[in-house]
Specification:
- This protein is an alpha/beta fold.
- It has 17 helices and 24 strands.
Length: about 500
């Protein structure tokens, strides 16, 4: 019995950017009705390969076939005509437009030259309902949505294209567990209907729960294709990084110092009277569903939102933060969840981004030699994969951009570090490196507040876990003595503080 012809076959794909070879003869095959995982460390070439398949980048060598016939994909429009849609890791919506306008962008419904707004709104509600956003008004401006809600709108837009091939690049990074479950049910429905899905993710649990096959890239080459049934986690890790990881979450010995950060009854119009303490050397995890107020809490602490009540103390001294400048001067640092919009200046170099928060200077002049040494040390410490320090940061992979954001704040040697989704879009090897950095900072006495939507991460890396629901604290749990069910009960408001 002959095997069915693949929907997509990419043969010996090559891609170069100047003298740098990013893809060196990659093969990739996708069948109808399968969910195919594409994995590899940051910089392995996954996003580049998918951008070639969607017509964003031209290939420099090789061939793409669909249903056994060679095709040329010069533009994104070519890919759409062939039934290929992509949900990008970095959100691709226009903030000033409404949800409905974004869903229909470039394919608006018209009659006699007029927009059929009512028809678009009806269709938008159907697409939004499929991703769990039944209550969302399609007229809502996108800039009023949270990052997670914007991610779901991106997914709804791709569904509206009725694609034969759907590429999902880290689709759950900003989603809660409940929203992820809705997405998984939708993916299984699409697979049953014959849609071919490429699933790019660094979350191993998702790969093993959802996917049928896996292709692994390393250093711009395909190093293996495996069936998921019977595959072991360590097999995937060895393919990705060329070595095994003894433990996903490194252990550490906790030695707590005195209370470093004390928060009493902190709140604004949404966050309702939050109180907690973080000791020097402690990692306080913050868990909760989308809209729980986790990011808003961090923004209050860093002065990005004005507090209407409450008191914050740093090392016992009252701290009134009216803006980020005062927070930084007091010894606080904040790694935000949206690195491109809030953490980086994409047109600047790696060096310039690392120096944004702390520029080594002498008598008001930039100390270039000291700046270069600071950059070199932090690139080495965080294992940032970059051609050189003068490369524009936009040219780095998402995970390496995240490391640059972290390096920027480490240059300050902060006393309090606020981390909002610190491993979002980072591969398993890169995550282990970031976890080691978190442990090293805690060992130096830094007080760390870590927001994460990944329950295994927040449970493994935290000493205590603050759980939030609709702007309120519902539980403060010892990480070693809790379980996912208890955290979820608190996150849904069914476990009283």
């Amino acid at each position: 019995m002959t095997a069915p012809v693949p929907v997509v076959e990419m043969r010996q794909i090559e891609k170069r950017f100047g003298p740098v070879s990013v893809l060196g003869g990659v093969d990739f095959e996708l069948r109808a009705g399968e969910v195919h995982a594409l994995m590899g460390e940051n910089g392995a070439g996954k996003s580049t390969l998918m951008k070639i398949l969607t017509g964003i980048y031209p290939l420099d060598g090789g061939q793409i076939c669909m249903d056994g016939e060679a095709v040329t994909l010069r533009t994104s429009a070519d890919a759409v005509r062939h039934g290929i849609a992509i949900i990008h890791q970095e959100l691709n919506l226009i903030p000033s437009l409404s949800v409905a306008e974004n869903l229909f962008l470039g394919r608006e419904l018209r009659q006699w030259g007029w927009l059929r707004k009512a028809a678009m709104a009806r269709q938008a509600r159907e697409w939004l309902a499929r991703v769990g956003l039944q209550a969302m008004d399609p007229a809502t401006p996108v800039d009023r949505l949270s990052v997670g809600q914007q991610q779901l709108v991106e997914i709804a837009r791709a569904l509206g294209q009725q694609a034969r091939v759907l590429i999902m690049d880290e689709p759950t990074t900003a989603l809660t567990e409940r929203e992820t479950a809705v997405l998984f049910a939708l993916i299984r429905e699409l697979r049953q209907a014959g849609t071919a899905i490429v699933y790019v993710s660094h979350r191993m649990e998702e790969i093993f729960a959802l996917c049928d096959r896996i292709t692994v890239l390393r250093d711009g080459r395909s190093v293996g294709v495996r069936d998921i049934p019977g595959l072991q986690l360590d097999d995937v890790v060895q393919l990705m990084v060329g070595r095994s990881l003894e433990a996903r979450f490194p252990s550490r010995e906790v030695t707590l110092g005195p209370v470093r950060l004390s928060v009493e009854d902190l709140g604004d119009d949404y966050v309702q009277g939050i109180s907690f303490q973080v000791h020097a050397g402690e990692v306080l995890g913050v868990a909760g569903l989308m809209g729980a107020g986790r990011t808003e809490l961090a923004q209050l602490l860093f002065g990005l939102r004005p507090a209407r009540r409450g008191q914050v103390r740093l090392d016992g001294q009252p701290l009134r933060v009216r803006g980020p400048r005062q927070a930084i001067a007091a010894g606080m640092a904040f790694v935000t969840e949206d690195r491109k919009a809030e953490g980086l200046v994409l047109d600047l170099s790696v060096r310039e981004n690392i120096s944004l928060a702390r520029v080594p200077a002498v008598a008001g002049w930039v100390a270039r030699r000291r700046e270069a040494e600071q950059t070199r040390q932090l690139i080495g410490q965080l294992k940032v994969r970059t051609r050189d320090a003068e490369l524009e940061v936009r040219a780095l992979s998402g995970g390496n951009q995240q490391k640059v954001v972290l390096a920027k704040w480490l240059a300050l040697a902060p006393q309090v570090l606020l981390l909002d989704e610190p491993t979002r879009g980072v591969d398993i090897g890169g995550k282990a490196e970031i976890y080691q950095i978190i442990n090293q900072l805690a060992a130096r006495g830094v007080a760390i507040v870590m927001i994460s939507s990944e329950l295994p991460e927040v449970m493994a890396m935290s000493d205590r876990i603050l759980v939030m629901h609709e702007g309120r604290a519902t539980a403060l749990l010892e990480a070693a003595a809790t379980d996912p069910e208890q955290i979820m009960r608190a996150a849904t408001g069914t476990l009283a503080a």
